[in-house]
Every structure is written in C-alpha cells, then in structure tokens.
Amino acid sequence: MQLVTRDNGTSGADVSHAIGTIVGLPERLASDVSFEVRGEVLLTTAQLERANEIRATHGAGAFSNARNGAAGTLRAKGRPYTLEMTFWAFGAVELDGPERTDGPAVLPGSTHAEVMAFVAAAGVQTAAATPAGLTVVATVAEVQEHVDRIAALRARLPFGIDGVVVKLDSLAEQAAAGTGSRHPHGATAHKLTVLGRFLSAFHPSAASMPSP
Predict the structure, then answer these.
(1) What sign for the dihedral angle of Cα 168, 44, 11, 89?
(2) Secondary structure (H, E, C), 113-164
(3) Cα–Cα nearest to 118, from 92, 80, 146, 84
(4) What is the pLDDT of residues 116-156, one digit of tens each?
(5) Could you give the dihedral angle defined by the CA atoms of residues 32, 38, 43 and 46, in that order, rounded to the nearest 10 degrees?
(6) pTM of the model as a whole
(7) Of 42, 44, 36, whose CA–CA distance to 74 is shortest?
C-alpha cells in the first residue's frame, strides 16, 4: 500500500509512514485486489480534541482547526506521539503506470455508487458511511432535498463541512462530461449557503455526499 497526498493534482508527497494511524484505511484489504482510492484524511471533532490534549502533554501548541491539524499530522515524521485520523473515500480508479497489471479491470459496475460499494466491501471506509451518506437521486428537486437534509445535519456530523459534492452517478456520463484543469465537469462542489443557484444547471441522476 502507498499513501500519497494530492498536492497539485499531478504529483504529491508520499506519506505512507502514516499508514496504520488512520481509521477507515486498513493496512491490508479484505480481498486480493489493487486499485487507487481517492478521499479525505481528516480529524473528526473528537479526534481534534484528543489530538490537542496529547500535544499539550508534549508541550506542543493546539491545532487551530481540524483541516490544518490533519494536513500537518499526515506529513509529520519523528514526533514522540501518534495522533489518530480518519479517512473517507469519495472515489476510486484503476491503477495506472508501473503499478498496473495486464489483468482485467478490477473495479466493477457502471455507476459511482457501485464503485463505492465495491471499495467499502474491500474494507475501505467511504463517504457512504458518514451520517450524511451517499444518495443517488433522479431529479434536480431530489438533489436539493438531499442538500437540505445534509445542511440540517451539519451540527451533528462528526466533522465540519462547508458544502456538498454533487456528481453524475453514471461513469459513462462522467467520462462524456470530461475534466477541466481543476476538477471534473461531471461533479460540482459548492458551499451550502450558495449551492441552490447551481442546481438548475446540473444533470439529473446524481449522487451527493458531504464536502469536508
């Protein structure tokens, strides 16, 4: 297993030393398969509180927020203490480059939801395991309903969020939509306070999930 940060989207830092300290990211998969999983490593509210307690006992300053705390902890080496973090996957793709084998494709299905179910079955925690869940809907109105439901959950989520990701569920439609310089055209992420104005332009049959 290799753990790499996203950084500029093309190359990132190898932080494999953190493997074994991240809830939701097992050291070994439940099945003999290999694929690339993409997601978010963060400190939950409880983990942030515990991390600051541990750091205080070692004379270190408190993390100002969970995002910066997770980013620093993920890259840190040689600390006299270990801080627990959590991982949630929001996507997966076939391996590319020298790691790819000549065998058949590993990831099944024709939809994002099916791929995420496969990833979860392999033992990796996905966004579907959050209280907000991963929901597939057929209309823009249903997307808005689910966004409103997630917004109502914000105070009860185990981590802070500032928006919701809405993406095409069909992998074929995702591919047809293409990818821009910063993000795929088949997905959109906006802050909850301004999300509504974008929904009327988004394609139905979409999956939605929280955006930490």
Answers:
(1) negative
(2) HHHHHHHHHCCCCEHHHCCCCCEEECCHHHHHHHHHHHHHHHHHCCCCCCEE
(3) 92
(4) 999 999 999 999 998 888 999 999 899 889 888 988 888 88
(5) -60
(6) 0.81
(7) 42
On whether the CB atoms of residues 192 and 151 are closer than 8 A, the answer is yes
Nearest to 16 by CA among 97, 74, 59, 90: 74
* The residue type at 162: D
Closest CA to 134 of 122, 118, 123: 118
Token look-up 């990833």 returns 119
For residue 72, the 8-state DSSP code is H
CB atoms closer than 10 angstroms to residue 203: 16
Reported as half-sphere exposure (CB side, CA atoms, 13 A), residue 89 has a value of 25
- Angstrom distance (rounded) from CA 141 to CA 109: 26
